[in-house]
Write a structure and sequence with these properties.
The structure holds two protein chains of two kinds. Chain A is mainly β. Chain A has strands spanning about 5, 10-15, 20-25, 30, 35, 40-45, 50-55, 60, 70-75, 75-80, 90-95, 105, 110. Chain A is globular and about 40 Å long. Chain B is globular. Chain B has a six-stranded mixed beta sheet, with no helix packed on it. Chain B has a four-stranded antiparallel beta sheet with strand order 1-3-8-7, with no helix packed on it. Chain B has strands at about 5, 10, 20-25, 35-40, 45-50, 55-60, 65-70, 75-80, 90-95, 105-110. Chain B is mainly beta. Helices cover about 0% and strands about 50% of the residues of chain B. Classes of the chains: A mainly beta, B mainly beta.
């Protein structure tokens, strides 16, 4: 199974700051056929289903604010949230869908100071 | 529009079998895969398994001996059956379509006597 190591587990920032969340996979998520990385990022608020933010490592889902940026390739990936807003309070997860069984990172809890 | 909705019993006794249904609309099961994801209270997301458009299945390595996923394409329904339930199986169970944009609201399953 591909292991997804996500860090940090939690962080607290003030509104307006920039946040970086890291996700490392135990093997490459780069598919040679489509030349894409099969990595997604989700936001989950309490009592809600996960919301897709980023897919294929760097493609922003429709309607997601452009302050959410996905980057990385191979085994190392990053979700950057620039100018964090109070509404960004949530848990964030990475997920690989390169191979089954699909696996998630352990999550990052974002708190706003 | 695309919708997924989970249904099933809220309470299951230990050692019994869990049966959940994911009813979908707005898309065909013969052209899309449906995945099950679960989340224990206060914990992270865990991929449970999937049924692919062609009808084949894949399962979480730790659960595959207890798990079965099937479908009825005529009714647009996907079924999850998990036997020998334990308290650790207490979780919210979500169904989602590959592509990860669309998720059900989730159904809370409690394993308790």
């Amino acid at each position: 199974d591909i292991v997804m190591t996500q860090s940090p587990s939690s962080l607290a920032v003030s509104a307006g700051e920039t946040v970086t969340i890291n996700c490392k996979s135990s093997q490459s998520l780069f598919g040679s056929v489509r030349q894409k990385n099969y990595l997604a990022w989700y936001q989950q608020k309490p009592g809600q289903s996960p919301k897709l933010l980023i897919y294929l490592a760097s493609t922003r889902e429709s309607g997601v604010p452009d302050r959410f940026i996905g980057s990385g390739s191979g085994t190392d990936f990053t979700l950057t949230i620039s100018s964090v807003q109070a509404e960004d309070l949530a848990n964030y997860y990475c997920q690989q869908y390169y191979d089954t069984p699909l696996t998630f990172g352990s999550g990052t809890k974002l708190e706003i100071k | 529009q695309v919708q997924l909705k989970e249904s099933g019993p809220g309470l299951v006794q230990p050692s019994q079998t869990l049966s959940l249904t994911c009813t979908v609309s707005g898309f065909s099961l013969t052209s899309n895969s449906v995945h099950w994801v679960r989340q224990p209270p206060g914990k992270g997301l865990e991929w449970v398994g999937a049924i692919w458009s062609g009808g084949s299945t894949d399962y979480n390595s730790a659960l595959k001996s207890r798990l079965s996923i099937s479908r009825d394409t005529s009714k647009s329904q996907v079924f999850l059956k998990m036997n020998s339930l334990q308290t650790e199986d207490t979780a919210i169970y979500f169904c989602t379509r590959y592509g990860w944009t669309y998720w059900g609201q989730g159904v809370m399953v409690t394993v308790s006597s």
